[in-house]
């Protein structure tokens, strides 16, 4: 899998290198760890925010060199925070996963999944709510419960009916004390979840919160897996309501980063693989941004965006483009690994 990742990065990098004449003077394509290090120093970067899927790993396999890079950044005194739109795992489980993949201890207070952001948002803006109906993974339930909320819904069980007929819909009695519906990625999303959430949202005082609006995730082979945005869109349509998105690229994510992680915008770098979330988040909030070529954004799209030809949600131009997060590490290991595994000379 590592060789496949390196090959993918190499293909994207080769495309960018062969089309450099079409790139604007900014962003800059940084092709060595030394140039990345110089960029960090010249911009007085003291905090690096990392997206996870497509940046730290793909399909559960670490991106080559990322463990070395994270250790280097921490050893040199930089603050590192992992900021993901994923909401399936709570902070402790996210930290355990990263610890295993990185081969070094990653504490919980370096992790910011959107299930924790949603709980922070609820405490900050809706502290009087008692019960929350959840569509999504166990992470949302865990973080909301830890914040003092009683959760209904959540991951379905084998005993939970997935469908409902008119009779069962008419006989459903919603809990009058549900004050919010929180929606995230749900791989077991069902009609009954959609119906029950819609019933709660008939109350205009009931809040509708989305952990993120990512329409899809990209799996191995370019397969698109429907993500939280698909569930959010379905509920917005059935309830005729607009959800508050707390994930990247919204201001709620920068709110928690400033409040609980003491992030200073002018000295922060956002490293991500998605233009519509990671890079948009950085651009909108005054961060420097680094687009990596190891995830969702292929070389062809990166080239169009860097040439000023991006449109819609893919219009956000990064400060720099780097082959992978491994290039934030020391020495020439990242270049050598990519040259050997990706067959793309630097």
TrEMBL record:
Catalytic positions?
A: 51 (nucleophile), 53 (proton donor)
Give a GO cellular-component term.
cytoplasm
Claim: Magnesium is one of the keywords in the record: yes
Name the cofactor(s) required for activity, per the record.
Answer: Mg(2+)
Nuclease as a keyword of this entry, yes or no, is no
Query: Could you tell me which SUPFAM superfamilies the record lists for this protein?
Result: HAD-like
Q: Which domain of life is it from?
A: Eukaryota
| Cofactor annotation remark | Divalent metal ions. Mg(2+) is the most effective.
* Keywords attached to this entry: Hydrolase, Magnesium, Metal-binding
> What positions does the entry give for Mg(2+) binding?
51, 53, 273
Please name the Pfam families in this protein's record. Hydrolase_6, Hydrolase_like
Q: Per the UniProt record, which residue ranges are transmembrane?
A: none
The UniProt GO MF terms for this protein read: metal ion binding; phosphatase activity
User: Which residues of the sequence carry a binding annotation for substrate?
Assistant: 248
State what protein this is by name: Uncharacterized protein
Q: Which species does this protein come from?
A: Triparma columacea
């Amino acid at each position: 899998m590592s060789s496949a990742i390196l090959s993918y990065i190499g293909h994207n990098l080769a495309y960018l290198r062969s089309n450099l004449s079409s790139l604007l003077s900014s962003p800059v394509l940084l092709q060595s760890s030394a140039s990345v290090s110089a960029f960090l120093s010249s911009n007085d970067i003291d905090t690096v925010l990392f997206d996870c899927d497509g940046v730290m790993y793909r399909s559960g396999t670490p991106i080559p060199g990322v463990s070395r890079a994270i250790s280097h950044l921490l050893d040199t005194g930089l603050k590192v925070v992992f900021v993901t739109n994923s909401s399936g795992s709570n902070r402790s489980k996210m930290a355990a996963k990263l610890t295993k993949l990185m081969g070094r201890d990653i504490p919980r207070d370096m992790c910011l999944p959107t299930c924790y952001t949603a709980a922070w948002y609820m405490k900050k803006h809706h502290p009087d709510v008692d019960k929350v109906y959840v569509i999504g993974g166990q992470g949302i339930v865990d973080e909301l419960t830890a914040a003092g909320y009683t959760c209904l819904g959540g991951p379905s069980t084998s005993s939970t009916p997935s469908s409902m007929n008119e009779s069962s819909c008419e006989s459903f009695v919603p809990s009058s004390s549900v004050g919010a519906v929180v929606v995230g990625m749900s791989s077991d999303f069902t009609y009954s979840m959609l119906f029950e959430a819609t019933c709660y949202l008939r109350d205009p005082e009931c809040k509708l919160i989305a952990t993120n609006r990512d329409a899809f995730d990209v799996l191995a082979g370019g397969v698109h897996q429907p993500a939280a945005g698909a569930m959010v869109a379905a509920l917005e349509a059935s309830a005729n309501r607009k959800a508050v998105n707390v994930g990247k690229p919204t201001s709620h994510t920068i709110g928690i980063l400033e409040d609980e992680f003491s992030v200073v915008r002018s000295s922060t770098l956002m490293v991500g693989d998605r233009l519509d979330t990671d890079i948009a988040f950085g651009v909108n909030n005054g961060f420097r941004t680094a687009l990596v070529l190891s995830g969702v954004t292929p070389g062809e799209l990166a080239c169009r965006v860097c040439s000023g030809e991006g449109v819609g949600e893919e219009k956000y131009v990064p400060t720099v483009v780097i082959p992978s997060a491994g290039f934030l590490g020391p020495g020439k290991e990242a270049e050598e690994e990519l040259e050997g595994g990706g067959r793309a000379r630097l």
